[in-house]
Amino acid sequence: MTLPAVVLLLVFNYAPLFGLITAFQEYDPLVGVWNSPLAGFDQFERLFGDPLFWGAVRNTLYLSFVQLILFFPIPIALALLLNSVLSQRIRNFIQSVVYLPHFFSWVLAITIFQQMLGGAGALNHFLRNNDIGTWDIMTNPDTFALLVTAQVIWKEAGWGIIVFLAALAAINTDLYEAAAADGAGPWRRLWHITLPGLRGVIVLLLVLRLGNALSVGFEQFLIQRNAVGHDAADVLDTFSFYYGIATGDYSYGAAAGLFKSVISLLLIWGANKLAHAFGEDGLYRK
Amino acid sequence: MGNELNRRSFLNAAVSAAGLVAMGPLLSACGGGGAQRAGVNSEAGLKAALPAYVPNTSIQPDIPSVAGGPDALTNPGFLKYPANRIATVSGVPGKGGKYSTVTPLWGTIPPADNSFYQAMNSALGVELQMKPADGNNYNTIIPTMTAAKRLPDWIQLPTWWNSQFNTGGLAGTQLADLTPYLSGDNVKKYPNLAAIPTAAWRTGVWGDKLYGIPSFSSGFQVAGIIYYRRDIFEAKGISPDQVKSADDLMSLGKELTDAKNGVWAFDDVYRYIYTAFGAPLKWKVDNGKLVHLYETEEFYAALDWNHRLATAGYVHPDALAGDNANGNTRFYGGKTLISSGGTGAWNLSDAQSGAAANPNYRRGAFNIFAADGKSAPRIDMGAGSSLMSYLNVNLKPEQIEELLSVANYLAAPFGSAEYTMINYGVEGQHFTMVNGEPTHTDAGKKEVQAQTYPFLATPASAVSSPGNPQVTRDYTDWQAANVKALAKPVFWNMNISMPQAQATADAAQSVEDTMKDCIHGKKKVSDVRDAVAAWKTSGGGDKLIQWTTENVLEKHGTGQ
């Protein structure tokens, strides 16, 4: 039964790994992978000497950090809030509303932000007509990290609560009743029953999040790169695209991509170790 | 012409394609592998390879071409579709061969094996398997074909790829040499191909051999021009003729911007206005020394002007936010009144889209002017053709001859029986004549309207706007008034392909990025100077200039 999944994995995930060899070549699409000349570590030497590359690394880590602090707790809080709503109908309604943006493409999400908050958008139109002065958020590189995090929250927070809701549903309700009978208030129940019940899931997602610290998204930055400039918006993935694929420098882009993969692997390995150290399961049970 | 062809979409594609590209490095040390790049063309070699030019006079336009300088010519205009649709090809060109093709299409892909394709196959006498691919991703699918050495029999490779994509490396190794079939008088066997102007063929010559067949060639090729809303200007009593300098244009920004009502004077105009400041397209020769655009003060003057335009608040905020895709919508809706773009934007479908937003909609363009208001106006000519098709090197000579006969059919002049077939299909089935103009039926809209065959070969461009001759008059009048301003830039039509490192430096991604921030008002001109300084040293800029000097300028001259 698992055969189709294994084949899928082999064909679409493992076989393409072979293409990593281009990072050690001067890849030429006219002659293909087999005939392109080898270049050893030349691409990596260039990469590590490129200030734009380090700018992209810095942006990636910074955005990841901001999202970890500002985004990660939101779905947990939302799930707790939703869990405390008793009416099933209202719960369903709220859940549907907060899920919806997840299914929008980034193009649409950013267009909506532009229409609302952009220089010619609804908010600034109102401000201008009332002579209050305009508020430049969509093209301000200094506040770009906050903007993209707000966009991620708007788009993904609702979707992120699914796992937590499932974990909440798994907590034995008898515990709450017993605690309430013993005189524990809502906060004490949250602290001593709910959060410990969620701990495993939270740690697992944190591990995954750390492992993906270098993947903060692609389209979101690609689309807004012209608006705030490459200094603020270039992350590792857009760097690979603009300085690799877009200029036909395929091997250079592959080197940047490979660098990202190796660091990500180390991060996820480290985070998993950490989880085990805290006595949690992490990605797998030890 | 002017059916579905929209140069703006080409340009958008070109901008995104500034990448997608691919190159083979000329690595001497590493040996093996890297494909050789066919070199630049020489004057003598060109003369031997280029086809003779025999103009076709069988169909006379309503508005004849006007000549400017050498190789500069306005497009002829047709106010009505020629009533007598004469046939220029006798018999069926093909001999029953079967061939695969790949062409880009900016629009909805027609259904495969449809009735129009079948009708074309029987008219052509060959089985052409049409495989139109999404134009926006076109540049990502070709490198996979070249790497696998599996190009189709007939393929379109746009010329704006030339500096980045190694078309020169494909010439001869994967693309067929057409010189023996088309050079000099050989072309007279194919009279419709012979009627394509020489400048367009030049774009298909690599290393002194002819490989490409041009589509949509024109004697009036420019990167783009500055447009304005003629209806709104006239209503406000503003004459475009009062714009004689960059300062005049800037002052319109103050006059026309009404942010409270959501109207900004300008959309992004930098890309088509910087040469008005005297900056070269990319290269100029100063006292025998090759100078790159980034080394000229005129370039920084143009940046400064655009930076001031943005910071003064005269540019639409969405344009400053990098949203180019909706530029047309803003222009149609009157949210911006001055914009820029390729000349292909000036056509019937533009007039129809504009009229849908505002019944009075009328596009106009400023005459070419010099930023200082004193120098002679000039605009750089582009390559003779933006689109070239190529045949596969593995075809046998008789197969090449068969496909050239098909190309001859596809290049039949505007208004001929063949042209009508290619662009409108079968009368009664795909189109009917309404008020003397061929008009697509529903089947025609679905199967014919999105152009496929024209990306393999077309006649030289003609202007027409069936049912709305005003558009043709406006555009041909503007061309006639400005054709004298056309001038050849350094390395005009020279098909330079360069080694990987130089091509990367040529793309100058880091400078282009900083430049965009500058014209959007986010960075200063001095930041661009810093980026250029870094580009010259660590970005390979100086080496690019040196390489181009030694391998192009000193060996082959300026091509002007």
From TrEMBL, chain A:
Statement: the UniProt record of this protein carries the keyword Transport: yes
Main localization (coarse): membrane
Transcription regulation found in the keyword field: no
Ranges that cross the membrane: 61-85, 97-117, 157-178, 190-211, 250-269
Subcellular location: Cell membrane
Alphabetized Gene3D superfamilies for the sequence: MetI-like
Record-linked PROSITE patterns: ABC_TM1
Highest taxon listed in the record's lineage: Bacteria
Domain (ABC transmembrane type-1): residue spans on this chain: 57-271
Membrane topology category: Multi-pass membrane protein
Protein keywords: Cell membrane, Membrane, Transmembrane, Transmembrane helix, Transport
Family stated for the protein in its record: Belongs to the binding-protein-dependent transport system permease family.
The protein's name in its UniProt record: Carbohydrate ABC transporter membrane protein 1 (CUT1 family)
From TrEMBL, chain B:
Stored InterPro entries: Bact_solute-bd_prot1 (IPR050490), TAT_signal (IPR006311)
Residues annotated as signal peptide: none
Organism domain of life: Bacteria
PROSITE patterns linked to this entry: PROKAR_LIPOPROTEIN, TAT
SUPFAM superfamilies: Periplasmic binding protein-like II
Protein family membership: Belongs to the bacterial solute-binding protein 1 family.
Protein name: Carbohydrate ABC transporter substrate-binding protein (CUT1 family)
